[in-house]
């Protein structure tokens, strides 16, 4: 394989892995906001226990996701120096905003939320979670703004052989950014809903004594999926006119490039249909008594993540041979390094990501099997109970 092919493969591998962590993080934090809001208003212990249990899983995934994001950033300096040289002034602006938001504000708010259990006023503690959620989605906002520039470059002027940022507002109103952002947001919420549904179903399969706890969680997961999937599909189809206008080559791509798009649509339609069929079965816990749907819910956990990877493949592969559509070809953006060096970094990064994914899965699986705490400790921080 050439240096270009290896660099592309490394980019695809690292971003795909990281994207999976991001989806679950955004999905779970949205559901946590609902749970803790209900606890703050009602004071019901079950809502606090739900917030703690699902919050523990969220924190695990967030921590591992941060590590994958740091590793992913290395590839830009290692493999894509041509991109940084040519368009760093424009492309780097939203990435800098994302770094400030994700690694400073979001981490700070989350840390205060974790250690604030039992120490802070309930409303202040809830406000910290809202701020954590807002900064998490703001992080996704800036990442998609940067990617939108690659899909349809706007807001720049040519200065010699490089691009300079000329109109920051144009980056934020880029049609390829705004249309995709909504799709990503509802994809994350769908992933969170399906994950919560599947985990709750697993506990009912294991005949959990925590019937009320996981009944509430199952209902929340199903209702979330029911509400999110139509918006997800609508936002997805709304992108087709934008793609046809600004990237006509993508719509005329070979059938093999369109295959991931087709699989993504099939999964989205399937999740929508199944969730709406499940909704009436929540009445009088029919879905729990039937048991067979519970197995389908567990099996369905990976599907939103698979669909997201298919969609990401279509968005990125369909842009080729351009890294910045119409301005910078991929082959011209690759660093001038030997293919063997890129292969070595590919092997190291892939191995590291596999390790991180396995650690994430093991820790989440352990937290899931452990189940909720019998009673919330009044002052001990959540971080103590992660392991």
UniProtKB/TrEMBL annotation:
GO MF annotation list: electron transfer activity; heme binding; metal ion binding; oxidoreductase activity, acting on diphenols and related substances as donors, oxygen as acceptor
This protein's name: Cytochrome d ubiquinol oxidase subunit I
Coiled-coil segments: none
Annotated family: Belongs to the cytochrome ubiquinol oxidase subunit 1 family.
Keyword Electron transport listed: yes
Main location: membrane
Keyword Nucleotide-binding carried by entry: no
Localization in the cell: Cell membrane
Membrane topology: Multi-pass membrane protein
Pfam families recorded: Cyt_bd_oxida_I
């Amino acid at each position: 394989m050439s240096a270009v092919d290896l660099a592309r493969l490394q980019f695809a591998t690292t971003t795909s892995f990281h994207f999976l962590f991001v989806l679950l993080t955004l999905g779970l934090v949205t559901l946590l906001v609902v749970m803790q809001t209900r606890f703050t208003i009602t004071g019901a212990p079950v809502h606090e226990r739900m917030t703690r249990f699902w919050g523990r899983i969220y924190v695990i995934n967030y921590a591992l996701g941060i590590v994958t994001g740091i590793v992913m950033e290395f590839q830009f300096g290692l493999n894509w120096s041509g991109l940084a040289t040519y368009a760093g002034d424009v492309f780097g602006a939203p990435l800098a905003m994302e770094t400030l938001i994700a690694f400073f504000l979001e981490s700070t708010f989350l840390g205060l939320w974790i250690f604030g259990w039992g120490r802070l006023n309930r409303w202040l503690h809830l406000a910290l979670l809202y701020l954590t959620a807002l900064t998490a989605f703001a992080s996704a906002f800036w990442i998609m703004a940067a990617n939108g520039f690659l899909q349809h470059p706007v807001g720049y002027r040519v200065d010699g052989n490089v691009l300079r940022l000329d109109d920051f507002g144009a980056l934020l109103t880029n049609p390829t950014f705004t249309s995709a952002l909504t799709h990503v947001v509802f994809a994350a919420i769908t992933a969170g809903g399906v994950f919560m549904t599947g985990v709750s179903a697993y506990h009912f399969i294991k005949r959990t004594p925590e019937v009320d706890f996981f009944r509430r969680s199952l209902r929340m997961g199903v209702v979330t999926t029911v509400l999110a999937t139509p918006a997800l599909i609508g936002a997805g189809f709304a992108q087709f006119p934008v793609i046809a206008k600004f990237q006509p080559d993508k719509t005329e791509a070979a059938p093999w490039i369109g295959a991931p798009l087709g699989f993504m649509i099939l999964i989205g339609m399937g999740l929508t249909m199944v969730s709406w069929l499940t909704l009436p079965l929540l009445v009088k816990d029919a879905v729990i008594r039937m048991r067979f749907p519970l197995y389908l819910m567990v099996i369905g956990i990976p599907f939103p993540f698979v669909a997201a990877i298919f969609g990401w493949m279509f968005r990125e592969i369909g842009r080729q041979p351009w890294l910045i559509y119409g301005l910078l070809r991929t082959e011209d953006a690759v660093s001038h390094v030997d293919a063997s060096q890129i292969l070595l970094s590919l092997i190291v990064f892939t191995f590291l990501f596999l390790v991180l994914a396995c650690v994430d899965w093991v820790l989440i699986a352990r937290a899931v099997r452990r189940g909720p705490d019998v009673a919330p400790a009044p002052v001990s921080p959540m971080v103590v109970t992660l392991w």
